[in-house]
Amino acid sequence: MTQRKCCQLFFAMFLFATSLQTKAQVNPQINNELKVAPTALAIKKFVPINKVQLTQARAKIANPQWMYTLPLEQINLPSATMAFAKNRPTVTVLIHGVTGFPTSDDRIGTLEGARNYWGFNFIDKLLGAQQDFPTTFSDDNPATGSLDRNNWETKFINKNINSNHFITIYGKPKLENSTPFYTPFSIMMTYRDGSLSFKKQVTATAAQIVSLYNSQFGNWPEDKKPQLILLCHSFGGVVARTICSKPVTIPSNDATVEVERFTTEERANMEFIRNKTLHITTLSTPHEGSPVTKNAEVGVFCQEIKFFGIAPFEQIDKSDPDTYVLKQLTTSFMENINETILKPELCKRADGTLIPIHALGGRVPSGPNYFDNPNENDADLATVDGGIGRTNIDELDRTESNREKFEGYNLLRVDYVMHLLIGPFSSEKPWGATPTDNSDLDIIKATDVDALSGCLKYPIQHNLTNFGLKPRVYYLRTNWSDIPSKIPFRCEYRFSRGSGVVRDGEIDNDGFVPINSSLGVKLGTNTKDYFDHSKAWPAGNTAAGSWYRFYRSIADFHNHGSIKFSGEIAQWLRENIIGNTPTALLFGTLDRFKSAGPKVAVSGTVSAW
Questions:
Q1: How far apart (Å, rounded) are the C-alpha atoms in residues 357 and 282?
Q2: Residue 525 has what pLDDT?
Q3: Is there a single domain that holds both residue 211 and residue 251?
Q4: Structural domain of residue 440, as residue ranges?
Q5: Would residue 212 count as lying in a domain?
Q6: Taking a C-beta distance cutoff of 8 angstroms, is the pair 163, 135 a contact?
Q7: Does 598 sit behind a cis peptide bond, omega within 30 degrees of 0 on the bond before it?
Q8: Alpha carbon distance 373, 596 (integer Å)
Q9: Are strands 357-360 and 277-283 parallel, antiparallel or unpaired?
Q10: Are residues 166 and 65 in the same domain?
């Protein structure tokens, strides 16, 4: 970074502090907030992780499942693709994304943490539960084994019991009966230390999947052993693509990141999984990296010269090769990965058939319920601040009741910091300018709060405990035509969820990943919708590509957090993608050369049976 750039950033912070002071003088109510946290938008000095504590925390969560390898005789068997069928048992494997260090949250790398990550509503709707509560393979008795919102993170969470990792509404397998019962559809919950490097996360995930699979289905008849669906959030989608591409190394174009190599045994685990994988679905996965990781490093650099420090992610620690995963998610690093080990034609099974990939992502950092009606404004700012009021976001519990607020508020702050860093000094768009050849990447318009306040019954005052300057806010579910304006025709920023598109020239984002990356639009090439399922691609020597991109979906109004625990997202996935394969539906004829869904059309790029 140049000295000029750092000086510009320093000047921005000076203006920021001056703005806060001016606002405090005008409004005594705000002055009280400033005493709590004068510059607490996301500005924290970077503190290197305590290596001793980190080593102890990782030892505490160590799991033999993450080191599992297939028996040698099984590794030496010829590879064979599973015979997929609509009436074959199916397991949906959940693969989560990057996490903080296990020193910051003792649930990381545990079954309890996986339960918290996805949330009960997501699992419940993914299963299609109506009146029945989900149970585990450990106990399918409704009286003693039912899972609900209240016990979701406390019941059957012992990681040493493999059957605890499987959730279903159909009952556990019963092979000892005279008429054996093979559970038709279930969910496998995986987890790992998501602060580790790229290769280590891939290795741990693949090992755990194979270990859990063999523990429950190893003695099933071959024609009954389940086919797999890999359902992934964030970096979990990159992990799944890597497993199903079976690379030899994780290459690096960054001098500070070492090349990582897989062993023969680790690649055998990948082979086992990809030959059983029906398809992959990714939610807000940074297929093309995230500009946030670049700017996190900018913050660290400035912190190193002792006057400015924005480090939204604790993993940016250049001294520890085990904790540089976010450096492996920069746009340049992922571009190199897509050009090498993750070329889409490499994601295939032993017989050469391509594994379909469905990609979708959110477009608004605020999430679906933030600022539901800007005219409902109470004295303590609770409504206009998404129900948080003056509470500092760091004081919120990450519980089911608070998670939308917690994730939405934090992701808004990330978006705010991105624009604070870049926007004031150049015409560059932090998330990327809308490409001339793909306007569908920009359907949401963002505006600053002050530009809107003159339109409304009550002027908007934002929470200075968490935001200093004008926060970028989104009014998504508001019908602006029904909102009285102080001055007629004053409100030029209008958006109604059902009314179409409003653009601002910047690629939409979910607070961590821009939508072009979530959709994997170019995958290291210069070609829009590269390797799309609708046409042939010489690189793959195939009649059709394997990628299904959902430019418009139920995910549009979600952020990077809510997309993984929202019931409406899970229900949409079940009805449009996953629901085509479980035997409970017996719908249509499965064609593994195309995809398992969706069975209803969507606007934009459509995948169909």
A1: 7
A2: 95
A3: yes
A4: 3-39+364-508
A5: yes
A6: no
A7: yes
A8: 39
A9: parallel
A10: yes
